[in-house]
Amino acid sequence: MRSRIFAPGPTPIPDEVQAAMAAPLxxxxxxxxxxxxxxxxxxxxxxxxxxxxxxxxxxxxxxxMEAAVVNTLSQGDRxxxxxxxxxxxxxxxxxxxYGVDVDVLDLPWGSAVDSMQVAERLKAHPDTRVVFxxxxxxxxxxxxxxxxxxxxxxxxxxxxxxxxxxxxxAHPLRTNDWGVDIAVTASQKGLGxxxxxxxxxxxxxxxxxxxxxxxxxFYLDLNAYRTALEEGRGPATLPMTLMAGMGAALDLVAAxxxxxxWARHARHAEAVRQATVALGLSxxxxxxxxxxTAVALPEDVDGLAIMAxxxxxxxxxxxxxxxxxxGHLIRISNLGFVDDLDILTVVSAFEMSLQKMGWSFTPxxxxxxxxxxxxx
Amino acid sequence: MRSRIFAPGPTPIPDEVQAAMAAPLxxxxxxxxxxxxxxxxxxxxxxxxxxxxxxxxxxxxxxxMEAAVVNTLSQGDRxxxxxxxxxxxxxxxxxxxYGVDVDVLDLPWGSAVDSMQVAERLKAHPDTRVVFxxxxxxxxxxxxxxxxxxxxxxxxxxxxxxxxxxxxxAHPLRTNDWGVDIAVTASQKGLGxxxxxxxxxxxxxxxxxxxxxxxxxFYLDLNAYRTALEEGRGPATLPMTLMAGMGAALDLVAAxxxxxxWARHARHAEAVRQATVALGLSxxxxxxxxxxTAVALPEDVDGLAIMAxxxxxxxxxxxxxxxxxxGHLIRISNLGFVDDLDILTVVSAFEMSLQKMGWSFTPxxxxxxxxxxxxx
Lengths: 376, 376
Prior knowledge:
The structure is a homodimer. Chain A is built from 14 helices and 14 strands. Chain A has about 375 residues and is of the alpha/beta class. In chain A, the strands form three sheets. In chain A, strands 2-10-9-8-5-3-4 form a seven-stranded mixed beta sheet, sandwiched between helices. Chain A has a five-stranded mixed beta sheet with strand order 1-13-14-12-11, with helices on one face. In chain A, a hairpin with a 4-residue loop joins strand 6 (about 135) and strand 7 (about 140-145). Chain A is globular and about 60 Å long. The two termini of chain A are about 30 Å apart. Chains A and B meet through helix 1, helix 3, helix 4, helix 10 and strand 13 of A and helix 1, helix 3, helix 4, helix 10 and strand 13 of B.
């Protein structure tokens, strides 16, 4: 039985990426390294899209998030965190660990932020230096409107920092058009590469603001990364095989066309949402992202049992509910290198599992809903 | 032409490691993850050897070093750094970035530390909380006597933290016998895995000391890593494919036997040192490690030209001199999964390159010296 991952990261790894990672390693102090890293960086920019500096870190997405905090703030500075799930809460936890004065805009899990609420908070606290947001909150499947946030934050002196860890590739994250000063993502999400590379974009305005930020840092010092990139080296040893995989993944994205990649994610997510409704279930968040679909389960259907069944009978890994939603959600991801028949497969397996759990519906309605969307 | 790496990390990647990294990925929130990570950790302990806790970080060796700093110290604490090359200087730089009061025992590059000097410094500054040392200083090829350091530091209240990034696998680093409280290493050195995994051992005494350490941390918080490991998860997404590669590499080490692995590194390093002398050159450090041989070049032989020639004609990557030694050293590594004929190959290529640069010797004397050691 083949292993099939429909979790919102890590995502399926294409053969081309595997091959690139198995190629002879580019020595990080050798003459091929400058071109190697600059090429990966150049290929990354169109997928946000961004014209800002892009830096590659030897870290997970969490490390890239921490880099955004420690490079923009000083102890006691005020920051606003938009928190509507587990990944929003990570911004808060990082800020608090560093003695930042955090104002948390705490929203119910599954809700998208109203940018007017952010405007009010910023008006109440004009000394806010940074606003931290999450583009796609994968713990609940919600998409926050970063463009609207950018308009609101752009009327203040604050920087806008966005966690695009799961959204990049599934949705555009137009840093320059939307006024995003720092966006972070990671290799194991939309890019279909194993975990281990963090990605950070930095605007000119963010570089300026960093000059007065005094939180301590060394490994995550973005200035060191920028200098090293200019000199064609890594400040520390970078994960070269994973970066080679990223290069191959970005070639696949370029071949498909990033606009088509976004459209594919929209179509696949819509197919899963339609299937969810056809199966008599509901989509959990009020503004669902195209990264994954968080399916709210009825009280008498146990999400953990479904996950175990999908794994045992079909080799399928999906995401479950996190924290207080454990057991109450099934999160089906269509992120990364996923094709139409993959979507059919996971919905069909989900149907079979729901039937086994005693949920009542006309067999095949979920798959029929997928077929309908895919055929349009 | 095949690519051959004789740099002190990254090192050659065995086929078994490549295969393990290409296997289906273990999902970090799935039921297979606890066993997966605990197995890798259990296999790692005998190679130091250590009975202490072992933690795996999504970072390079530099990140693991920073974890040792931020988890053991508070701002203004006093630390002693034994600095005799670029990697010793990294301890100093990290400590300074975090406002630690650093006492630097600055030794000439290429020298090994005399533990009596350390004893004197600790006597002069009894408030020193942590002593930072480098086991194998790869920038110069020197091996510091960690056992002797452990005796001296053990007579004080200070913790002993050792950078074993390049030494582990080549030399034993007996944390418990020698009184090493924290040792760090990384995947791309002796373990023959691509870069991206940092490794940290932590003694019971270090865990105790950490309770009062207040330097800010989140991503590198070792307590979070310990709790996560106990619960069978990663605190952030860990680099699972690289960890799978580590598991395969550790199986190879276990099959050979760690004592035999250490003996092989001793024999190979001795062969390169004998070849160096036979070629009329000298070994740079006063106490060479078995990780690599830093060959001091005569004034009229340009190390950069040799490196370029080795790469162009033979596809060989060796290390060069760093910082003020740039162009003056060739660093030939035998670290990791290297066999007898690999050593013959690199010395033969080095001979041919030296000849091309006009260095005068009887052709074949280097290789003959290698053969002699390998045949003993």
